[in-house]
Amino acid sequence: MSAPLPLPQAPQPYILHDIAVPQALLRDLPGIAMTGGMEGGLVRTSLGVAAGRICAPDEIAEALQVPAGGWTALPRLVEPHVHLDKSDTIAETGAGDGTLMGAIGTMGAAMRDWDDAHYAARMSRAVKEALTAGVGAMRTHIDCMDLPEEQPGWRAISEVAETFAGRMQITPVALAALDRTRAENFDTRCAQVARAGGVLGAFIGPDGADPDLLDAFLAGAERHGLDVDFHVDEHLRAVPSATVALAEAVLRTGFAGRVLAGHTCRLGLMSADELDRAVDVIARSGIAVASLPRTNLYLQDRQAGRTPTRRGMAPIHELAARGVPVVFGTDNVRDAFFPFGGYDLLNLFADAAYSLHLDDDLGGWLRAVTDVAADMLGLGGAGSVRAGAAADLVLLPARNWSGILTTRPEDRTILIGGRESAQSTLRDLPRKEAAS
Ligand SMILES: [Zn+2]
């Protein structure tokens, strides 16, 4: 492993000299293209850091020179889809049967016993783990079968978001089945989500979505100025796509908020013609798609004693080719939906890189966990390396993609506002609960 970068301990201007940055993430600053076998899409540049912000090196008169050859800088990563309320519970619940519906049953029964403190402790551990890996913002779904403010998980995430404010931007999504839109208190649900600065979420099962219900859901969100986030088409049945129904509802209603459609596994089963028509509607609606490769590989096409062949992956190349924003999320961590994994989003991106064949443009696809994800989460301007932005960076002791995608969190240097101090204080915190 490389020696640590000699960063200044006191707040003073410095220049990260000769550092690599993905071209797709570098804005308003010059770079020289790198050309080695695993360096495609990377450029060499030098980044000034002054008053907590990135600037051109020639804007700083007297700066400490930090030689950073051998290192790569990324913006802090943006996690668009996790479930912190379920995090780290596999030892307690036991594994389900490895299917989505099995996991929903296992988790639903266990969640009834957990209080605010149980949720908050696990959520805090998860956030620290993400912080040390270089994540700077997370959107987390929180199950809210009843009104959010009556849910221990919703109360706990508010408390945890406050604790980590300034280090991690946390946005909660109130998740419930779409048919909760019919409940008398649906408008109160929307008001409570708005009060928490949250997002209105819905789960749409394989039976699809009633268009009137989708319209009512979007109307409620619109009244309260909310963005919306769906679990949709998370199955491999040859039934009408609810993602297409959602896109049609957005076009029909002219919904003004941001719409994120998570999973969309069912789209991957379509014939080329059918997919072409589906992607056309999705692209025109302006909705974005969250691909969640780990849980889909784990939960989809499972049958005891048979090797899975239908891998449940959203057709991200076809969607992106038509301009649909695509983001990658970690989804579940060490719970009945996915008993493995962690909150290192760069490691999740590495899994996406091979399972979804992103090799041709790793730098471009990295936008799915940086600036495209930031735009989708309403954090416009975050997730890129540009002059004037906060110096919120992940520095990796690697200079090509095979190195970048295999660094361990403990080898990375995290800068928040240009200072390393936050990472060094976080490094000693417990990163995960020991499996019992
Ligand atoms: Zn999810």
Structure, described:
- The longest helix has 18 residues, at 116-133.
- This protein has helices spanning 90-93, 100-111, 116-133, 152-163, 186-195, 211-223, 242-253, 272-285, 293-299, 316-321, 345-355, 362-365, 371-376, 401-404, 421-426; strands at residues 14-22, 26-27, 32-33, 42-50, 53-55, 64-67, 72-75, 77-82, 135-143, 169-175, 199-204, 228-232, 259-263, 288-291, 326-328, 385-386, 393-396, 413-415.
- The strands form 4 sheets. The chain has an 8-stranded parallel β-sheet with strand order 8-9-10-11-12-13-14-15. Strands 1, 3, 4, 5 and 6 form a 5-stranded mixed β-sheet that branches. It has a 3-stranded antiparallel β-sheet with strand order 7-17-18.
- The protein is built from 15 helices and 18 strands.
- It folds into 2 domains: 14-75 and 384-426, Roll (Urease, subunit C, domain 1), CATH 2.30.40; 77-376, Metal-dependent hydrolases (TIM Barrel), CATH 3.20.20.140.
- It is α/β, with parallel strands linked by helices and 436 residues long.
- It binds zinc ion (ZN).
- Zinc ion binds at residues 81, 83, 141, 231, 262, 331.
